[in-house]
Amino acid sequence: MIIDIKYIFKKILFWSVIMIIVLYLLFPFYWAVNSSLKSEAQLQMIPTTLVPRNPETMDFSPTLRNFAAVFKNKIFVKSILNSAIVAGSTTLLALIVGSFAAFALGKLAFRGKKPVLYLILAMTMFPQITVLSGLYAVITKFNLSARLSMVISYMIFTLPFTTWVLTSFFKELPKEIMQSAQVDGATPFQTFYLVLLPLTAPALVTTGLLAFIAAWNEYLFALTFTAIEPSARTIPVAIALFTGSVVRQVPYGEIMAAAVIVTVPVVILVFIFQRRIVQGLTAGSVKG
Amino acid sequence: MDRNSKLDLVTDEQRLAYKLLAPTLIILLIVAIYPLSQVFYTSFTDRTFAGTNQTHFIGLNNYSKLLNFTIKELPPVIEQGTNQVKIDSKTGEKVYEPSFKVLPGSPKPYKELSQFNFLGKRYVVGATNPEFINSIITTLIFTLSAVSLETVLGLIIALLVNSNFTGRGLMRAVMLLPWAVITVVSARIWEWILAPSRVGLFNMFLEKIGIGNGQLAFLTADNWQLFSLIMVDVWKTTPFMALLILAGLQLIPGELYEAARVDGANKVRQFFSITFPLLKPALAVALIFRTLDSLRVFGLFQVLVGQRLYSLASYNYYQLVGNRAMGLASAVGVIIFMIIFVFAVIYMRLLGVDSE
């Protein structure tokens, strides 16, 4: 009987801790959704309400007006497209270039391997802000468009990461696979893209997802490089500079609607890939 | 296989390796190494951003503009009639001379950074650029508090998610959510939650339970700003910490715990003799990532407090884009680089990451 009480007590404690953590992690989303469904008048209600309510009757009355306004906002819609293009191209480029380097570092023998590995590792710790002004000078010199500038400059943080994680995946692949392909007459490069690359497909997906999220999230470079080209703004910049239709009033309802809209796709990705993400990091970060 | 063809094979492999590495190295040269050397060089000049002015080499001038500081004793005010130290009638404390009287005014004026008492005397710290010194202090406080809170919370969450219970997969997905939200978006959401009146969730809630008057200005009041920024960062990035720690936990073989249980070790004992030592590499990587990331925090500061409170990176940005002082901004960049480098080296030494 005593043991039972202790067991039940432990269970209750465990689940209450879980509930507190879930609440802590989720309430800002809840607040964004709640606020996005409120009209301007409902947003200004004092005290604020936990669900959208009619100011007079206090009945539950959500509105989709903010979402409609956001989708009518041309800059915002364009920024979603810009972000998709920039983050997508960044991911693709980082995966292609990174997998080349990772194959060399993980499976080939050559002189100078260690210095190269250390150089690439050093880049992961590189402060983006430090190169900002120098990078800006390079970009104006080559007269690159804002979108292309972003794709190239995002390599600073995506390329070392993809190379690093993929190198450890390549290392784990058994050497025999390569040898038997070579016996069959395949050149090392053929072995790479016909045999090894398909085997690392799951790793490519995980690494690609993480690189995509990092590029989707980036703000500093995007803010700087789109300063003179507003049509190239990505989502983070568009949301940071969101002014809405009414002058001199921060349109929180619309900002929250925009926040909900851009969060949903990433949330879905995370739900689908959560197991993979954990595994990807296990292989990449811990084993080095 | 004779010696020659074996050698050929080796050089073939080498040549392929270099070819495969070339794109990576070229890109890193363009986006990191060349700009970095440019920044180093520019930091010794008075170059302006997007300007046509002639650039001059000015040596360490930018650095001294940023970092010069001095400590001077502040004499108490002597009342003329009595020749005694003036005492404030309200607080009962000594009144001191204003700091501009003791701080040097040339060649560059020093402004007061802070005052402190030491061994019965009053001192004033002056700096030629208190904003920058403050941005260093702010960033260090931000980093140390945020990272330690994130480590503790991340460890707790990771240990919970790592234990076996129904709904574990769902919990793992929920755990990752704040991390998946764009930083700027989460800053905007929190800005609204922290609104300075009861239209904000926090003020409404705190007033309801009797704390504050429902008017706490979380993002503008001096003593709440940094606290709020840390809170938002902890919410946003604890999941990342938890994720890396969880990855480390899953590498620990379960048999070790079984053996420990057979030997009669309790949960606490198991944590300190198995979990913690084996978790150290994962914890080290997570700590390094998070520390270096928060030392260069930008979006959070820029969106939530703008130019009211600077982090190192936001100070750099405003000097570059707002003030067009490219030379000075480059010097700030170099200083940030050095601070981050020092942290990275300390971590690697302390945690033995480089011995791998």
From TrEMBL, chain A:
<keyword id="KW-0813">Transport</keyword>
<feature type="transmembrane region" description="Helical">
    <location>
        <begin position="191"/>
        <end position="216"/>
    </location>
</feature>
<keyword id="KW-1133">Transmembrane helix</keyword>
<comment type="similarity">
    <text>Belongs to the binding-protein-dependent transport system permease family.</text>
</comment>
<keyword id="KW-0472">Membrane</keyword>
<dbReference type="InterPro" id="IPR050901">
    <property type="entry name" value="BP-dep_ABC_trans_perm"/>
</dbReference>
<feature type="transmembrane region" description="Helical">
    <location>
        <begin position="80"/>
        <end position="104"/>
    </location>
</feature>
<feature type="transmembrane region" description="Helical">
    <location>
        <begin position="116"/>
        <end position="139"/>
    </location>
</feature>
<dbReference type="GO" id="GO:0055085">
    <property type="term" value="P:transmembrane transport"/>
</dbReference>
<dbReference type="GO" id="GO:0005886">
    <property type="term" value="C:plasma membrane"/>
</dbReference>
<feature type="transmembrane region" description="Helical">
    <location>
        <begin position="255"/>
        <end position="273"/>
    </location>
</feature>
<feature type="transmembrane region" description="Helical">
    <location>
        <begin position="12"/>
        <end position="33"/>
    </location>
</feature>
<dbReference type="Pfam" id="PF00528">
    <property type="entry name" value="BPD_transp_1"/>
</dbReference>
<keyword id="KW-0812">Transmembrane</keyword>
<feature type="domain" description="ABC transmembrane type-1">
    <location>
        <begin position="80"/>
        <end position="273"/>
    </location>
</feature>
<dbReference type="InterPro" id="IPR035906">
    <property type="entry name" value="MetI-like_sf"/>
</dbReference>
<feature type="transmembrane region" description="Helical">
    <location>
        <begin position="151"/>
        <end position="170"/>
    </location>
</feature>
<keyword id="KW-1003">Cell membrane</keyword>
<protein>
    <submittedName>
        <fullName>ABC transporter permease subunit</fullName>
    </submittedName>
</protein>
<dbReference type="InterPro" id="IPR000515">
    <property type="entry name" value="MetI-like"/>
</dbReference>
UniProtKB/TrEMBL annotation, chain B:
<feature type="transmembrane region" description="Helical">
    <location>
        <begin position="271"/>
        <end position="289"/>
    </location>
</feature>
<dbReference type="GO" id="GO:0055085">
    <property type="term" value="P:transmembrane transport"/>
</dbReference>
<dbReference type="InterPro" id="IPR000515">
    <property type="entry name" value="MetI-like"/>
</dbReference>
<feature type="transmembrane region" description="Helical">
    <location>
        <begin position="173"/>
        <end position="195"/>
    </location>
</feature>
<keyword id="KW-1133">Transmembrane helix</keyword>
<dbReference type="InterPro" id="IPR035906">
    <property type="entry name" value="MetI-like_sf"/>
</dbReference>
<feature type="transmembrane region" description="Helical">
    <location>
        <begin position="132"/>
        <end position="161"/>
    </location>
</feature>
<keyword id="KW-0472">Membrane</keyword>
<dbReference type="Pfam" id="PF00528">
    <property type="entry name" value="BPD_transp_1"/>
</dbReference>
<dbReference type="GO" id="GO:0005886">
    <property type="term" value="C:plasma membrane"/>
</dbReference>
<comment type="similarity">
    <text>Belongs to the binding-protein-dependent transport system permease family.</text>
</comment>
<keyword id="KW-1003">Cell membrane</keyword>
<feature type="transmembrane region" description="Helical">
    <location>
        <begin position="20"/>
        <end position="41"/>
    </location>
</feature>
<protein>
    <submittedName>
        <fullName>ABC transporter permease subunit</fullName>
    </submittedName>
</protein>
<keyword id="KW-0813">Transport</keyword>
<feature type="transmembrane region" description="Helical">
    <location>
        <begin position="325"/>
        <end position="348"/>
    </location>
</feature>
<feature type="domain" description="ABC transmembrane type-1">
    <location>
        <begin position="136"/>
        <end position="347"/>
    </location>
</feature>
<keyword id="KW-0812">Transmembrane</keyword>
